[in-house]
Write a structure and sequence with these properties.
The structure holds 2 protein chains of 2 kinds. By secondary structure, chain A is mainly α. Chain A folds into 2 domains: 1-59; 65-93. Helices cover 76% and strands 0% of the residues of chain A. Chain A has 3 helices and no strands. Chain B has one domain (29-198): Cytochrome c oxidase, subunit III, four-helix bundle (Four Helix Bundle (Hemerythrin (Met), subunit A)). In chain B, helix 1 crosses helix 2 (42-50) and helix 3 (54-79) packs antiparallel against helix 7 (173-198). Chain B starts with 8 loop residues before the first helix and ends with a helix. Classes of the chains: A mainly alpha, B mainly alpha.
Chain lengths: 93, 200
């Protein structure tokens, strides 16, 4: 019953946490200096990398099979379509 | 009557993930509103964003990331049949949740004392973009705060179940699902933080 392959060691988890903290410091650093419109793109890109780390390691998605991965993809795609279609309307009305 | 209870761990996790997807769309809708109004009132949003305390926002980000580390570690501990360590880690997660809410309380109190709260005279007389910004700020961080409260309660209930031996190393799925919910709370904050505190 105790499927060992699903266990993520303390070392891996701590390394991911350290990565998340460094990325947070990076976002704060980038957005404190004035780099114009790039800071929005940079902040959102870093947030996406951070959420990828949380989903893959903390939420164990790397241990899950195809079904859950596809469902996650479909959920994110749905959200992306909502956002994309809304902005298509907003920008070209 | 004694019989082997039916168990479907994958089904339980699948159900939890499906629920988390609906949560994603809930907050996704709020982020979409934010993006649409930022597009319409960029100046007022920048003005509003400058009034938020990015140091407190950063502190809360670090607290939530650390709480997620403790939550993930608690699953590892329980799978390695170390229930006492698992309980200690879940309690550490809950303490982080409490710390987060204290900082949130201080932040909201400071805004209230400056007359910034939903429906206040100050916001009624402010430009429309600014009252929209703070309206969205209070709704988004309010619903998120509610999730922190619910997540903390859920984890406390699960810690009790680890204590009385209902949730064990051979039956971790309830703890896994509880921590999945907790990580979602962290995940949402990962986006609230740059959107409201940093990039404006």
């Amino acid at each position: 019953m105790n499927d060992d392959h699903r266990i993520t060691g303390y070392g891996t988890l701590t390394a991911v946490w350290l990565g998340l903290i460094i990325l947070t410091a990076l976002t704060v650093g980038i957005t404190r200096v004035e780099v114009g419109g790039y800071k929005v793109a940079a902040a959102l890109a870093i947030a996406s990398i951070k959420s990828g780390l949380v989903i893959a390691v903390f939420m164990q998605m790397k241990h899950e099979g195809r079904l859950l991965r596809w469902l996650l993809f479909v959920a994110l795609l749905t959200l992306a379509i909502f956002i994309g279609v809304t902005f298509f309307d907003l920008l070209y009305r | 009557m004694t019989h082997q209870a039916h168990r479907d761990d994958f089904g339980a996790r699948l159900g939890m993930w499906l629920f988390l997807f609906t949560e994603l769309l809930l907050f996704g809708g709020l982020f979409l509103l934010y993006a649409a109004y930022l597009h319409r009132y960029p100046g007022a949003f920048a003005e509003g964003g400058r009034q938020l305390d990015w140091i407190m926002g950063t502190a809360n980000t670090v607290i939530l990331l650390t709480s997620s580390l403790f939550a993930a570690m608690s699953v590892t501990a329980l799978r390695r049949n170390e229930p006492h360590r698992a309980i200690a880690l879940v309690v550490a997660t809950i303490l982080c949740a409490a710390g987060f809410l204290v900082i949130k309380y201080v932040e909201w109190s400071a805004k209230f004392s400056h007359g910034i709260y939903p429906g206040s005279e100050h916001l009624k007389n402010a430009p429309p973009g600014e009252s929209l910004f703070f309206g969205l700020y209070f709704v988004t961080t309010g619903i998120h705060g509610l999730h922190v409260l619910i997540g903390g309660g859920l984890l406390a209930w699960i810690a009790k179940k680890i204590g009385n031996g209902t949730v064990t190393g051979d039956n971790v799925v309830l703890l896994e699902n509880g921590t999945l919910y907790w990580h979602l709370v962290d995940l949402i904050w990962i986006f609230i933080f740059p959107l409201y505190y940093l990039m404006l």
